[in-house]
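Table 4 source record.
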Amino acid sequence: MNTKLKSFFKENSIFFIILISVSFLFIFYKIVQFQRFDLREDFTLFENVLWNSCNGRFLIENSYGNSYFSQHFTPIIILLMPIYCFFQSPYTLLVIDGLAISMALIPLYIISKHYTANKFLQFTVLISFIFYDRLFYGLSSNFYMEVFYPLFIFLLIYFMIKEKWLLYWIFFILVITIKEDSNIVLFGIGLYLLLKRNYKIGLISALIPLIVFPVTILYIIPGFPHPYGKHDIAFLERWSNYGNDVKSIILSMFNPIKDFNEIFSREKIKSVIGVLRQFIFIPLLNYKTILLILPYLFFILSSNYGTMYRFEYHYTLILIPILYLAFFENLKWLKTYKFKYTENVISVLLIFTSIYSVNNIYNNIPRDMKKLNFGNKFDNALNMISQIPGDESVSVSKTLISRVPVRLHRTHIPYGLDIANYVIIYKDEKTSSFDEKITPLILDSLRNCTSWKIIKDEGEFVFFRKISP
C-alpha cells in the first residue's frame, strides 16, 4: 500500500469505522426482519422478477405473466440481474438493501467535506443521516428500487457541485432508471441550476424530465403486459382528488385554491415538519433551495394516498439527498454572517434532532425485535412450507410469502388460488383491513370445497393441498 493511500485511510479512519459498522448494522437489521416474517409481498415481487428473469421469463413478476414494468418503470433492476443470477437467494436482496443505503454515507461525507472543514459538523451530518427516522422507515420497508436513490442522487450532487458534467449526466440517467418519480426531483434540480445561472445544464436538466415523465406514464408503462389486459396508468387513483383521468388531474393542479385546500391540511403540514425537523428547517432559508425541493413536495402532498403524504416507508428516500444539498447551500449562506460558532451551534442542534429521531425509531421497533426474542410462533408455518415440493405452485397469506422458496408459481392470497396446488392460510392475517376481512372467507371456502384437503390445522395456520379430480 503506497504512502498516499495509507495517509488517506489514516485521515479518514473514523469515517471508515462508521461506514463498516453501519453497513453491518443495516444488513443485520434486514436479516432480522426477514427472520421475523416482516418482509412481505413487495419483497417477494422483486425476488420473483429477478428469479424469473434469470430463468428465461424476463421481468415477469408473477404467475399471470405480467411485466413489472406495467406498474413502475425501473430499468435499474436489470443491473441487479447478474448479481441475483449468481446468488439466487432472498439474502442477496437483504444485503443489497442494507448496502445500498449505507453506501450513501460515502458521497455524503465527501460532500460535507466540500462545504465545511469543521470535523465536528462533518461527524454530526453523518450522525443525522444514520439516525434519521425517515431513513429508518425506508430501510424498514420491503425491498424497493428506491433504496438506490440516496447513493445515486448524492453522487449526482457531488459531480454537480464539482462541475464534472459527464459524470453528472451519467448519474442523471441512472437516477431516471430507478423509478419514474425520479423525474420530479430531477426537474427540481434543473430549476435550481437555472436559478444558479447555469442556464445550459439547468435547462437541459429541467427539460429531460418534462419529456421523460409523461412519456413514461402515458406510453411506456401502459405498453407492458398487465393481467386481464388492463392498461390503466399505474396508481392514478392516488390523485383522484383532482380528477378521474390524466387531463382532468393536470388541469385541476393549476387551480391554486384547489392546491391550497389539498396541500395545507393539518396532517400534511405535520408530515412536512416531521421531514424537515432533522435539518433544523435550514433547507427553507432560501428561495432557491425551496424551489429545489418544491416539485417533489407538491407531487407527494397533492396525493390523497396517506402512506405517500405521510412520507412513510420508502417515500422519503428520494428527498433525503436533496434536503442535504439545500442544507449545505444554506449553511454556506449562514456562514457569511461571520458568526464564529455557526457550525458548532448547528452541529449541536443536529445532535438534538438526531436524538429525537432515535426515540421515534426505538418506538417503531417491535418489542420482541428489541430483545431479539422471536419465539416459535411461526414454527408450524415453516414446517408446512418445508413439506411443499420445490416445483409446486403455492399461494399463502402475505405474512408468509417471503419465506416460501421462489418458484414459477408463488403468489399471496387471494391471488393464485386458481392455479395453486398448495395453500397455507394464516388465520390472524392483519397486513391490511382487506386481508383481515378476506382471510376467514377464503378459509371457510377452502374448508367446504371438495377439491381441497386439509393436511394440517395447527395453531394459527391451516395447510391445504389440492386433490386431483
